[in-house]
Amino acid sequence: MNGFLLSRADRTLRTCGSRDQYRGIDAAAEALARRAVPLVVGALPFDPADPAALTAPETMHRTAGPWQPGAAPALPEARIVDRLPSPDEHRARVARLVTRLRSGELDKVVAARSVLLEADAPVPPWSLLARLVLQDPAGNGFGVDLSPAGGRYVGRSLVGASPELLLRRTGREVECFPLAGTAPRHADPAADRAEGEALLASDKNRAEHAFVTDWIRDALAPVCTELTVPDAPRLISTRQVWHLATPIRGVLREPAPSALDLARLLHPTPAVGGTPFDAALAAIRDTEEPRGFYGGAVGWCDADGDGEWVVAIRCAEVDADGLRLQAWAGGGIVAASDPDAELAETSTKLGTLLGALGVNTHG
Ligand SMILES: C=C(O[C@@H]1C=C(C(=O)O)C=C[C@H]1O)C(=O)O
To answer: Does 363 map to a domain?
Structure first.
């Protein structure tokens, strides 16, 4: 995929070409700080030890509102050919994590799984992104060339539509919109509303959510002169799920960290990692296949330090030839989690990507 696109409800950034590429955040941050480049776009991996895929683009184009790609492009038929791990193994992993959570070794950890897909003809990443944005124009649709990360990422892209804003920095203002706590949507409006209300009232889900808001508060407090974190979360919905969400706002202390510095400070939050941070990251590294850029962050930062980063969920990596895709979904596990419910939650979340691809099989 040549270029980068981030489609948000209020504005879209699209870039083309590459005048420089960075595998390390430091090198990109340094180029921005020297004003050697006006803008850096791209993706940060889930695991901070892995390479990033950052690009200083040749040209950029900003438009108001979500991306308007025109009519929904047709996509070739695609099907699930494998699951990593198998649904049974995911359930077993969640059960083992619950044992560790009950022993007090961990407070929360996100368990993820993926599905591998094969298509009859190449899936153009831009067409997949167009379908995701048309399916939910309010979501944060993104398409990123992962080539700057090198190795197996050359020619690969990351395409998705995330409901979660890691951060937006505008001058000294910083905003975050973390999510954690999930319930499925229902076709019947009364059942749907009841599911949402039950999520909002659930102590288990509120506790899961609070690990994320506490993490963000602790990370932002030292770099802010003002910080507002509401006491209770609110409900938001996508086409597939309800989530608990908390809008967080702060005023940054001078010299204000850039959006890229803030992304590095906040990511990975316990919405995709866990608490305590080191133990959760170690558990994920020990139990899961590599997440690559799933669970990472996608966004941009300009030479003034402004920028936006969304959490890279509800997404897939598309192979260089477009014939193979890998889509992931995860969920926060706490001591009270049920392995069957967690498996179902990942299937529902996979529905964002699979729905845009026209794959109806439940993941
Ligand atoms: C990890 C994912 O989603 C995250 C986990 C959530 C949860 O555990 O309830 C909710 C929203 C996201 O922060 C995913 O979609 O893959």
So the answer is: no
Q: Is residue 76 domain-resident? A: no
* Smallest CA separation from ligand 1 atom 10, residue: 180
> Which CATH number is 334's domain given?
3.60.120.10
**pLDDT score, position 48:** 97
The predicted structure's pLDDT at residue 218: 98
Establish if 155 belongs to a structural domain: yes
CA separation for the pair 11, 62 (Å, rounded): 7
What is the tally of structural domains in the chain?
Answer: 1
* Tokens standing for residue 227: 């910080």
In this structure, are residues 94 and 111 in contact, taking their beta carbons and an 8 Å threshold?
A: yes
Does any ligand 1 atom lie closer than 6 A to the CB of residue 163?
no
Mean pLDDT of 300-328: 98
Nearest to 169 by CA among 350, 312, 305, 303: 305
Give residue-wise pLDDT tens across range 119-138.
999 999 999 999 999 999 99
Q: Ligand 1: distance of its center to the CA of 159 in Å? A: 17
What residue's CA is closest to ligand 1, atom 9?
A: 181
Strand order in the sheet with 179-184: 179-184, 241-245, 234-237
* Alpha helix (H) residue ranges in 118-247: 125-135, 189-201, 203-220
Asked whether the predicted pLDDT for residue 363 surpasses 60, the reply is no
Q: Is residue 335 part of a domain?
A: yes
Where in the sequence numbering do the catalytic residues fall? Answer: 108, 164
* pTM for the predicted model, two decimal places: 0.98
Q: Is beta strand 315-318 parallel, antiparallel or unpaired with respect to 173-177?
A: unpaired
Task: Name residue, tokens 């609110």.
Answer: 234
**Residue 60 structural domain:** 4-70+84-357
**Could you identify the atom of ligand 1 that is nearest to the CA of residue 332?**
8
